[in-house]
TrEMBL record:
Gene: Exoc4
InterPro entries: Sec8/EXOC4 (IPR039682), Sec8_exocyst_N (IPR007191), Sec8_M (IPR048630)
Record-annotated membrane-spanning stretches: none
Name of this protein: Exocyst complex component Sec8
Coiled-coil features, chain-numbered ranges: 45-97
Length: 338
């Protein structure tokens, strides 16, 4: 018993010095290898068995003493193990779900991009359809504007429609007839504007002078003034030079001012466009500029200048002769006795 106790004590001391279990095994192997006698080995073997039995008894006693705590620890360990296992399974499931979500999001992204592109295409098609619908109404609106002599609106409408028909709507086969019609009207539009410009330059301006002269003649006949009729007042007559030199168009030397103010000319659709002859001629020039027909306009004015001036002289001569004849008759009637 003492030998067993010593062996057990030796083993305990060995274990206390080294917490590594392999240290005890190495000590036993060294003891067995150094002993040459079989009896010593058997003795060593018996010591080991007694020591292990002693350890088992001590372990059983400790288990009995700490049964409740051990049971609780074992159960706690088992629950912790189960929770860890469940957590691993859940994490694995979450990873799988994340991968599937990633794949679905890729698919959804492609679908959303496709729908977005389709939405842009449909919006573009709707804009083209609205533009086509508006362009189909251009001939009727153009006729109304031309009838009311709102030439600037008509020019803007015609130029815009032709640009659309020859640009974004060029591939629309159903608009070919309308395209030809509006293109033909655009090619001939400047002729109408040039005729209106000449009418205001040479005819309307001189008619106002003639009307002033008639009014003066009537006034003189009412007051029975036998004095000669005064000369026509042409200082306020609107001419192309005065049209450029008026304050609203800047000075003759500042071409940039004239161009800027010409661009600011707007047309009021509710007023008579010919009420202000100067503004109306500005509108005509702006319309011709939008049609890019200014060179043709200058050439037409140069070509027709001599003819128009002859017509002014002819009309003026006729008016002077008629006024003189009428004045002579009035004087002869006034001098006759009742």
């Amino acid at each position: 018993k003492m030998a067993a106790g010593e062996a057990a004590g030796r083993y305990r001391s060995t274990m206390s010095k080294s917490k590594d279990p392999s240290g005890l095994l190495i000590s036993v192997i060294r003891t067995l290898s150094t002993s040459d006698d079989v009896e010593d080995r058997e003795t060593e073997k018996g010591r080991l068995e007694e020591a292990y039995e002693k350890c088992d008894r001590d372990l059983d006693q400790l288990i009995v003493q700490h049964y409740t705590e051990l049971t609780t620890a074992i159960r706690t360990y088992q629950s912790i193990t189960e929770r860890i296992t469940n957590s691993r399974n859940k994490i694995k499931q979450v990873k799988e779900n994340l991968l599937s979500c990633k794949m679905l999001l890729h698919c959804k992204r492609d679908e959303l991009r496709k729908l977005w592109i389709e939405g842009i295409e449909h919006k573009h098609v709707l804009n083209l359809l609205d533009e086509i619908e508006n362009i189909k109404q251009v001939p009727q609106k153009l006729e109304q504007c031309m009838a009311s002599k709102h030439y600037l609106n008509a020019t803007d409408m015609l130029v815009s429609a032709v640009d659309s028909l020859e640009g974004p709507l060029l591939q629309v086969e159903g608009l070919s007839d309308l395209r030809l019609e509006l293109h033909s009207k655009k090619m001939n539009m400047h002729l109408v504007l040039i005729d209106e410009l000449h009418r205001h330059l040479y005819i309307r301006s001189t008619n106002r002078v003639g009307q002033r002269n008639k009014e003066k003649g009537r006034i003189s006949s009412h007051v029975k003034d036998a004095s000669p009729v005064p000369l026509m007042d042409v200082t306020n007559l609107s001419t192309p030079r005065k049209f450029l030199e008026t304050s609203q168009f800047g000075t003759p030397g500042t071409a940039s001012m004239r161009e800027t103010n010409l661009l600011e000319i707007k047309e009021d659709t509710e007023l008579d466009p010919e009420e202000n002859s100067t503004a109306f001629m500005g509108i005509l020039i702006k319309g011709l500029a939008k049609l890019k027909k200014i060179p043709e306009t200058v050439k037409a004015i140069q070509d027709r200048l001599e003819q128009e001036l002859k017509q002014i002289v002819k009309r003026s001569t006729t008016q002077v002769a008629d006024n003189g004849y009428q004045r002579g008759e009035n004087i002869s009637q006034d001098n006759q006795p009742r």
